[in-house]
Amino acid sequence: MTTPRKQVILGAYLGGVNHHTAWWHPEAGSQIDFDSFEHTARTAERGKFDFFFLAEGLALRERAGKIFDQDIIGRPDTFTVLASLAAVTEHLGLAGTINTTFNEPYELARQFASLDHLSGGRAAWNVVTSFDAFTGQNFRRGGFLDPADRYVRAEETLNAVRALWDSWEAGDLVANRDSGRFLARPDAGAFTFRGEQFDISGTFTVPRSPQGRPVILQAGVSPQGRDFAAANADAIFSPYGKLPEAAEFYRDIKARAVAAGRAADEIKILPSASFVLGDTEAEAVEKYHTVRDEQVTGQTALILLEQIWNRDLSGYDPQGPIPDIDPDPDAPPVIQGRAFVHQDRFATARRLREVAAAKKLTLREVVIDQFERGPLVGTPAQVAEQIDTFVQDNGSDGFILGSHLVPWGLDEFVDKVVPLLQDRGVLRGEYTGTTLRDNLGLRDVHAATPARAET
After folding, report:
1. Is the sign of the CA dihedral 94, 95, 101, 105 positive or negative?
2. 8 Å CB contact between 54 and 41
3. What kind of fold does domain 9-277+374-453 have according to CATH?
């Protein structure tokens, strides 16, 4: 029997506070105006994407006490943007990154349940934790959690939020025929949750939402992060855009999900990727090199390495060799407000030196070689082939795509690559589900049923 071809999941992200966005490009649009968010979301829906995704920036990032001059400044409130997009889209999922360290379960549960109602079942929550005291200064409690405690609070926050969502059963809302009012059944919304982090009780104000529970997204690379994601997430963002390491990550997460008592297909693996298209492969490669060289300037390369070394590297020549000194993890942070994604500074520095020596690369060339996010480069047919092959070979279940050019860059992908994926039979021609869970192929979690008349 022939195994059915996997369907490709597609998410779209709007470039934000990072060096991947070519904000200096003369055709680049605003990072704040609603028109940019709307255009990207409408374009993604036109391409039958599964969801639109927003990252989060809770603090303006700094280097040595000064704001990065190569970063975009500002990101509007996530819930405000997604709720606005719910009014101008019909099928597209709406995913937001919201922190568990500085938010309370009750408000998180209400916000996401409300978004799910407003959008007709299209809300998703990317669960993240805080990583530094610098960010915590913006919040009432200040400070931050130790790494060992971050996932403890995150897991308890998620469990509490789910308890509030589940406090309403499907069908708890009843329509009174005489008055036309909706009435709640006795005890609907009543909740009590007690744990190490929270001791809360009351009545949840938002009835069961169209999905039952909004979709949960997560990104975890450390063993603790992988276990948390495998046990709790509906989809996880993979940091690997190249086989075979992507396939190994895929196998590991799926195995952890099974070990946590779930089916392997209950969690989807989604790496982020950029793309560059050309009429010929040579043209695409030339365009890619131009974009890449603009993105990774000498200054950007030094800053990315400073995050690993935790030293001021401004005296090093980007066209020279990689630093031969060791990182200094115990010094005050040189870079503030950036999530640290490398588990071992010394091992990472050693690996970069080995790559530089083996490939005879300069400092800047090493950064370009090692910090890429798996770009998809080629003709539309070649990029469609790359995506399809990667997914069928279990490198992922799909991709979260973004362009260096905000907000117009995604148009080219939708116009030229999406039809080819549809011709291959791996991308829907029309939406068939009514919720994001439906479109992602996720199991039902007791979604809301229409209010029935009281008899």
Report:
1. positive
2. no
3. TIM Barrel (3.20.20)
